[in-house]
Design goal:
Elements (H helix, E strand, L loop, with lengths): L15 E4 L5 H11 L3 E6 L13 E2 L2 E2 L2 H4 L3 E5 L5 H13 L2 E4 L5 H4 L4 H7 L4 E6 L14 H7 L2 H4 L14 H24 L4 E5 H6 L5 H8 L16 E6 L2 E6 L3 H10 L3 H4 L7 H6 L1 H12 L4 H10 L4 E3 L3 H6 L1 H5 L3 E5 L5 E5 L33
Helix pairs in contact: 1-8
Amino acid sequence: MSASTLPPAGPLAGLKVLELGQLIAGPFAGKTLGDFGAEVIKVEPPGTGDPLRQWRLLHNGTSVWWQVQSRNKKSVVLDLRSDEGRSDVRRLIDEADVLIENFKPGTLEKWGLGYESLAASNPGLIMLRISGYGQDGPYRDLPGFAVVAEAMGGLRHLMGEPGRVPVRAGVSLGDTLAALHGVIGVLLALQARARTGRGQVVDVALYEAVFNCMESLLPEYSAFGAVRQPAGSALPGIAPSNAYRCADGQVVIGGNGDSIYKRLMSAIGRDDLGTDPALAHNAGRAAQVDRIDAAITAWTVQRPVAEVVTVLQAASVPVGRIYTVQDIAEDPHYRARGMIQRILTADGLALDVPGVVPRLSDTPGSLRSLAPALGEHPARWSEGQGG
């Protein structure tokens, strides 16, 4: 690759990020910062490295997930349980702008790497700490994973059918939400550092990241004592918004805007419901949601998915097929917006991976380097780097 074809450096070019985390939450935050130009050094334990290297489906002994989670990073092997390893990592931290860690609270302090000690020699250091329950509070020392955070944060109770055991999404939402909140915190701390010259700690708890996305759950309980219950594929109190059976599959329809609702009813031949004054606004529709859903289902179940989507899109009603990953991989819109990118791994595997989100018009992120082999890089920062 010539200099003229190198991808843009990104808005975080020159930022030094040291990643001590493993698996998902910390490394996803590191990946996001790396996608936008930060120099990310990932510290891995000797021997096996980050356990994610061995998670899910493997190619030549390495997870293909690793190619996504660790792109735009360097791999350095250090044993943080040894004096030599801690000395080496301390040297890296002294030059870093951001330190990411997702150990159990107190672990870094046990190793002499607490924030007060680190900030004494690097006062501009920003430390992102991601843990199950946060760095203080009565649950601080409990082990926490995404599955527990999703339950404690209120999400799991709402997922599934009424009266049945709650289900989980097939991905670790708690980890990813925490990582994204962590990235927001780092960017805010960088903005503050630009004014004050001082770093700070960004304390992200998995359960709090989930809780922050729970919309009206708490104020409704506070004001009315309402405990929202699971509602399957519907959105409680918002109508109509649901998944509907078709002759050959399912679609999701969001017809809950007042004008959208009228267009939806017209498209399915139910102008009687569309012009009913009692159903003109959401409160009235929510009170009769079963009646409305039955009318929509009576229409969709007689038609294939493709026809339902075509008719409702023509009526400017939000509608969509329920995608599998095969649908995603074959969808032209994903390709047109660069959300699927093809890479060639070091061992020759042609692999589709997700593109960079969000899209910036002037300083976009990019895939600049492949996920590293274990210990591929020396334990030092590149010359000329620095935030």
